[in-house]
């Protein structure tokens, strides 16, 4: 695992580079190109959304960037690491050190408190108990949940659980956070609050976000929007995305 450097994550540098990326599934005699020869860079500091109709390939693309799925051909590089050169154990290490995940279903450990859910990641990284607790508490404060350290997921609202998930994704200081429909299970206010939180964290710390979403509110707040159809990028828009989100 290459060490993190401020140079490798300097604004504008490619945190993710996909080259000729393809993922092909076969169903009997039928071949499905979920991702088809895709070239794409995600720059350090991007706050980008990714959307497309069902079957467009966006989930498959995120899974390959996250090292959860291997491409049929082509390459994915994350923070200087070529994922195709890594075995299963090294991929797991890369995910732990360099990629934060925020899932639609929160995926918190129900028997652990909010603080312990965040600490768990740092424990896997070998961080000592005192530093682990301090960093987890700071991460919770960053997402507006100071004072809720001892609450288990069942005693948190959906919006609060997703904030814990964001804190957990960020606590290891990853190169990129991959979020999969993070607002899908939230009411309108909680969704708006979560979007604002992620945008604020991106602006304040420069954390790179790639958010898979159909939510027009999320797209409108992004600085870059990528659309996929049939495994290919069909649009890549930066700037004012209010019209894109319509």
From TrEMBL:
Keyword Aminoacyl-tRNA synthetase listed: no
Superkingdom in the source lineage: Bacteria
GO molecular function: ATP binding; ATP hydrolysis activity; transmembrane transporter activity
Cellular component aspect of the GO annotation: membrane protein complex; plasma membrane
Keywords, sorted A to Z: ATP-binding, Cell inner membrane, Cell membrane, Membrane, Nucleotide-binding, Transport
Record domain ABC transporter: where: 16-244
InterPro entries linked: AAA+_ATPase, ABC_transporter-like_ATP-bd, ABC_transporter-like_CS, ABC_transpr_LolD-like, MacB-like_ATP-bd, P-loop_NTPase
Recorded family membership: Belongs to the ABC transporter superfamily. Macrolide exporter (TC 3.A.1.122) family.
Name of this protein: ABC transport system ATP-binding protein
Species whose genome carries this gene: Allgaiera indica
Biological classification of the source: Bacteria, Pseudomonadati, Pseudomonadota, Alphaproteobacteria, Rhodobacterales
């Amino acid at each position: 695992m290459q060490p993190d450097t401020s140079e490798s994550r300097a604004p504008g540098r490619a945190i993710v580079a996909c080259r000729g990326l393809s993922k092909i599934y076969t169903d009997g005699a039928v071949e499905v190109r979920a991702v088809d020869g895709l070239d794409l860079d995600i720059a350090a500091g991007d706050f980008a959304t990714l959307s497309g109709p069902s079957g467009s390939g966006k989930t498959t693309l995120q899974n390959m960037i996250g090292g959860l799925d291997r491409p049929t051909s082509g390459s994915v590089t994350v923070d200087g690491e070529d994922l195709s050169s890594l075995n299963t154990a090294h991929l797991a290490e890369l995910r732990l050190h360099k990629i934060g995940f925020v899932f639609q279903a929160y995926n918190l450990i129900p028997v652990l408190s909010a603080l312990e859910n965040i600490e768990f990641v740092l424990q896997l990284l070998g961080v000592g108990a005192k530093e682990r607790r301090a960093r987890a508490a700071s991460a919770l404060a960053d997402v507006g949940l100071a004072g809720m350290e001892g609450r288990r997921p069942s005693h948190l609202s959906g919006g609060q659980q997703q904030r814990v998930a964001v804190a957990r994704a960020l606590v290891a200081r990853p190169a990129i956070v991959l979020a999969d429909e993070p607002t899908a299970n939230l009411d309108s206010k909680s969704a708006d609050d979560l979007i604002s939180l992620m945008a604020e964290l991106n602006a304040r710390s420069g954390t790179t976000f790639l958010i898979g979403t159909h939510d027009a509110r999320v797209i409108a707040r992004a600085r870059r929007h990528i659309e996929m159809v049939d495994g290919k990028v069909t649009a890549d828009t930066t700037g004012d995305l209010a019209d894109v989100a319509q």
